[in-house]
């Protein structure tokens, strides 16, 4: 078993007796059920309804009180080489070819439209969701998915295993509402985190307040843009 550590989770490469390799992922800190549920639903949806090479979800458990004491996700290993390890040695023709493939993937994702702005879930995977929107039948033939709330964890003050306070936003059918909600969630920076940032950076200007001011201006601009009928006609929820 090899460790594959990342910023938000710890990955483990599992080699079975028959040589099959799997990836097990455990979050670095306890999260909420909705986070893993949305990740699983998004992976399953993309694997089922797009041509993107998405690893198959083999097992998952969002209950932090299970037998291993943590949420976990097990997926099949996708074999290949990281593009960053090859890019410098590729010819211009090969680079253009890769860029075209990436654009094709982005186009495929952009062509997926959903019933509301929020996060994707398997129906019934988050039973305490107060509100959700089912996907249109042409986007979900098996009636397995829905759009529910976006969740955001507040900043924490230390390195404990607590993930902070959970706040939900949406789901919304209006582009104006979801953008304003997200902007104001970013404005909610705890004073303790702000003070810690100031101590770490030791700079003369105030980046936290400057960010707040920029976001407040952005919220005004978004209000103007989203009230325009032309913007509303071309805007749609997508991945």
TrEMBL record:
One of its GO terms (cellular component) is mitochondrion. The keyword Transferase does not apply. Keywords: Mitochondrion, Transit peptide. SUPFAM superfamilies: Protein kinase-like (PK-like) (SSF56112). It is found in: Mitochondrion. Coiled coil: none annotated. Belongs to the AIM9 family. This is Altered inheritance of mitochondria protein 9, mitochondrial. It comes from Aspergillus homomorphus (strain CBS 101889).
